[in-house]
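We modelled the chain as a single entity of 474 amino acids. Its sequence is:
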Amino acid sequence: MLTGESGSHINAGVMPQTPPVVAAAAGDGLQRKLGLFPLTNIVIANMIGAGIFTTSGLLMGDLHHPGVMLALWVVGGLIALCGALSYGELGAAIPRAGGEYAFLSRLYHPGVGFLSGWVSFFVGFSAPIAASAIGFVEYLTRAYPGLLDLGLLPEPFEAKVLKKAYAILVIAAFTFLHTRGLELGARVQNGLTALKILIVVGLVGAGLAFGKGSLTHFAAAAPFRFDFAGWKTMGLSLMWIMFAYSGWNASAYVGSEVRDPSRNLPRSLLLGTGIVALLYAAVNVFYVYAVPPADMEGVISIGGLAAGNLFGRSAETVISVSISFALFSSLSAYLIIGPRVYYSMAKDGVFFKAIARVSERHGVPSRAIVLQGAIAAVMALVGTFDQLLTYMGFSLGIFPILAVIGVFKLRRTGLSVVRMPGFPLAPALYVLFGVTILVLAFLQRPFESSIAVATALVGVPVYFLFKRSSNGPF
């Protein structure tokens, strides 16, 4: 994700020569009010989203081995922690809103920062909105399967059409909600986030304490071969898992509003990521304990299936409905944050000028919100859930790697404000795993991965198009 501002005043490849914190605080006009607790909450709330509720069944469909799946979730958590260590150092040195947009603009070139914003337009926000909407429909129709059998079209064509239609209706409803003003949208968002965290903790606690599952499910595994095909499968699986972990860098996006950023920002990243990594491991133990691996395979609404196996059909309905509405939290958050990124980019002259207009009545960038919702609706219409996961995972894996490499530049130029532990091992491991995952995933899913690469490359001429005019075209 990205919540950025332009770094176009920085010369190509040149870091600012004034002390980073002073330089960052001087030009933002935002108040530094956020301490450790709210920052950690931001990280946790951003990480726990559609991924943990939807990907494990798809993973089991490819891996057929609960032990390998659990090991990959742990590896994903370690990769995220390595990234959090690196971003802690970057965020302390460049404590400004924007995450990769701010880091890459200042570490390398404004054009690189723009490309991260360009990719976020399609992938960081639009695709996750579509995925969250699809996940919502999967859980809701698990609870109420009659919603897919209205007798309007022949089966099974009707079920496919209705799933797409419901997903688009959800996107349209939340797009309309957020064009009505920020206050109402924020109240809805806070309630949904609390529900999401409560569901995760409640499911794991009640399921493992009182559920009627079986530890023998962990042994019911098909043989896994660690040949090249197996490594490609694991690479793709890790990429999907890293989508579930996306948000480990969330507090870096509000760097301009962090109190004592050299202290609070790195700690929030590590605390939030560590807590979620433990929760994710526990949730996947819960899934396998509740559902035999063969029954997990390909199931998107895995949380509802697990609850049904442990507590019966009534619990399956209640939990499925609860998770479906909890997925609104992620969808809603993307519709709050994303359009404001494009609004800021438009104000800086590197995005469509019309997007910079704010609704006089509601005080929100309504055109940006509608544009975001429209693109998300198209993605929900044309893409399947696993295609969206691959597209998102590949695209979102590129720019954090470049940002983490920037830690070495900070150290070399003496601009690190806080020297995080683990250097150089943590950033090196993040880069190594990140590149390896991208290569293996490309080999396993070349079509979706190629579209992700093309999305980034198209941004190059678009950047120069916008830069031709200081006010931006259109």
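As a brief sanity check on the tokenised model: The radius of gyration is 22 Å. The first helix runs from residue 20 to 26.
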